[in-house]
């Protein structure tokens, strides 16, 4: 039976305020709280909340047969907690159904996986902990920022304990192969790869409301018919959509919510089922290995990372940001660490793109800046102030090699301390055990001594010698007494 695997992505960046050159060193707060509040609240009420309510009805009406997954960045969760807490309640209800899986993502929706494995692992860990604290779920499958993947990421995912990765079914990587199968990673065969079906995903995300499209209008039975019409041996169709597609990119009056809600009925009629990524990986075996030498993503026509690192502006900002990564990890300033996360958001680099045509139009649609150069200038001003704050704690005069040497020494010392603590704990346990055994031996000695003491007490005591009688005093002559009396 063919499986359909829906994944809905939620991300909202921490937008920066207009930050001038003269603010450097004077103003350490970088964010446009008004815009963040207004945009997140509007998107949540127009899109996220009605979409979540629709999904809950779909699960209930199908008696749990409809299943899907969510990928939510930590930065988005923070803002939703603050501005739209009622949506977090809906996410809890979705999690409680058991029909929705939540995937692991980098906390800041960052590009750390391309340059800093340690930062990448830390962000995924923190985001997973956030999901567990809010929803009580532990992710088992990794969804990197914008589906970015290459051969270097698979071993990292394996080391973090993930059994699968959701990524883009890029045509220049697949060639004649189909994305509708499970593959194993060439660099880590234990890791399974689920590939997005780009065409079928974009039929909803990009073309649903396009009246010039020759397939307009798109109906649920037509769409399910396309999936059912794929070759019978193909195992799974992975559909990855931004949740903002529903009610955001396509308005509610377009019929997008009714279209979504009708999908389970037609899927059941055509003999197809919905599964979560973990269910797909537990049931289906990989048909072969897939090697990705250069990073791929789900953005722009090229399906590479040029959406964020395609020009000199973006590369300058990217290298400048991660040049202080080691120093930030050393510091204990919570505010500095929080800013470090927010500034890593891939959106800041996305706004600097200088692409044209369709790709350029997409970048301009999402950017709050008039030009890519304005986006670059604003971000670099903020970054300059941030680096000044980092330098106050760890001067940049210390070379990276020297800093790495110091870090290695610190880590070695930490390992040695940990070893010594384990030895000390073991010795304490031995001493405690010795004291217990010693305490158990002492009563046995007292028991052995008790009969001997009792025997001594039973022996008759030796008779004491009778005291000698005093010699009787000699009687005086009675005649002499009488004579003296006269």
Give a quick precis of the structure.
Helix content is 52%, strand content 10%. It has helices spanning 33-61, 74-83, 85-96, 117-135, 153-159, 171-174, 198-205, 220-228, 256-269, 277-283, 306-309, 312-322, 325-330, 334-343, 346-350, 357-366, 372-393, 400-458, 478-485; strands spanning 3-10, 68-72, 100-103, 141-143, 164-168, 182-185, 188-196, 236-242, 273-274, 289-290.
Question: What is the topology?
Answer:
Layout: E1 3-10, H1 33-61, E2 68-72, H2 74-83, H3 85-96, E3 100-103, H4 117-135, E4 141-143, H5 153-159, E5 164-168, H6 171-174, E6 182-185, E7 188-196, H7 198-205, H8 220-228, E8 236-242, H9 256-269, E9 273-274, H10 277-283, E10 289-290, H11 306-309, H12 312-322, H13 325-330, H14 334-343, H15 346-350, H16 357-366, H17 372-393, H18 400-458, H19 478-485
Parallel strand pairs: 1-2, 1-8, 1-9, 2-3, 4-5, 5-7, 6-10
Antiparallel strand pairs: 6-7
How would you describe the overall organization of this protein?
With 486 residues, this protein is an alpha/beta fold. It has a domain of 306 residues: 7-stranded beta/alpha barrel, CATH 3.20.110.20. It contains 19 helices and ten strands. The strands form two sheets. Strands 1, 2, 3, 8 and 9 form a five-stranded parallel β-sheet that branches. A five-stranded mixed β-sheet has the order 4-5-7-6-10. Helix 5 links the parallel strand 4 and strand 5. The longest helix has 59 residues. It is globular, with a radius of gyration of 39 Å.
């Amino acid at each position: 039976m063919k499986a359909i695997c829906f994944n809905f992505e939620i991300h909202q960046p921490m937008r920066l305020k207009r930050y001038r050159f003269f603010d450097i060193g004077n103003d350490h707060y970088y964010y446009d709280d008004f815009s963040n509040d207004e945009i997140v609240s509007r998107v949540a009420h127009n899109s996220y909340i009605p979409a979540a309510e629709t999904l809950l009805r779909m699960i209930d009406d199908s008696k749990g047969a409809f299943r899907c997954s969510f990928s939510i960045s930590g930065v988005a969760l923070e803002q939703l907690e603050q501005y739209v807490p009622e949506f977090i309640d809906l996410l809890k209800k979705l999690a409680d159904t058991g029909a929705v899986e939540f995937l692991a993502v980098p906390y800041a929706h960052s590009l750390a996986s391309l340059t800093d494995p340690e930062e990448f692992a830390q962000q995924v860990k923190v985001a997973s902990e956030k999901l567990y604290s809010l929803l009580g779920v532990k992710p088992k499958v990794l969804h990197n920022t914008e589906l970015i993947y290459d051969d270097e990421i698979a071993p990292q995912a394996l080391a973090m304990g993930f059994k699968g990765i959701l990524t883009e079914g890029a045509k220049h990587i697949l060639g004649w192969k189909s994305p509708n199968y499970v593959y194993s990673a060439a660099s880590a065969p234990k890791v399974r790869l689920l590939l997005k079906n780009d065409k079928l995903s974009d039929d909803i995300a990009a073309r649903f409301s396009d009246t010039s499209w020759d397939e307009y209008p798109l109906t649920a039975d037509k769409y399910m018919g396309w999936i059912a019409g794929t070759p019978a041996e193909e195992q799974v169709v992975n559909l990855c959509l931004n949740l903002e597609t529903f009610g955001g990119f396509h308005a509610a009056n377009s019929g997008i919510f009714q279209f979504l809600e009708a999908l389970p009925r037609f899927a059941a009629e055509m003999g197809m089922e919905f599964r979560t990524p973990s269910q797909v990986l537990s049931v289906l075996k990989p048909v072969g290995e897939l090697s990705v030498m250069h990073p791929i993503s789900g953005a722009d026509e090229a399906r590479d990372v040029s959406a964020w690192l395609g020009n000199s502006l973006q590369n300058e900002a990217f290298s400048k940001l991660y040049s202080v990564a080691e120093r930030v990890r050393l510091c204990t300033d919570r505010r500095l660490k929080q800013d470090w996360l927010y500034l890593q958001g891939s959106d800041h680099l996305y706004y600097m793109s200088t692409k044209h045509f369709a790709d350029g139009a997409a970048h301009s649609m999402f950017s709050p800046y008039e030009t890519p150069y304005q986006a670059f200038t604003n971000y670099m001003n903020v970054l300059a102030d941030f680096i000044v704050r980092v330098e106050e704690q760890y001067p940049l005069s210390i070379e990276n090699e020297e800093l790495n040497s110091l870090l290695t020494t610190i880590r070695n010392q930490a390992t040695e301390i940990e070893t010594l603590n384990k030895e000390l704990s073991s010795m304490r346990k031995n001493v405690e055990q010795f004291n217990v055994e010693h305490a158990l031996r002492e009563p046995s000695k007292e028991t052995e001594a008790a009969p001997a003491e009792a025997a001594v007490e039973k022996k008759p005591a030796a008779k004491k010698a009778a005291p000698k009688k005093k010699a009787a005093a000699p009687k005086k002559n009675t005649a002499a007494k009488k004579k003296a009396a006269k």
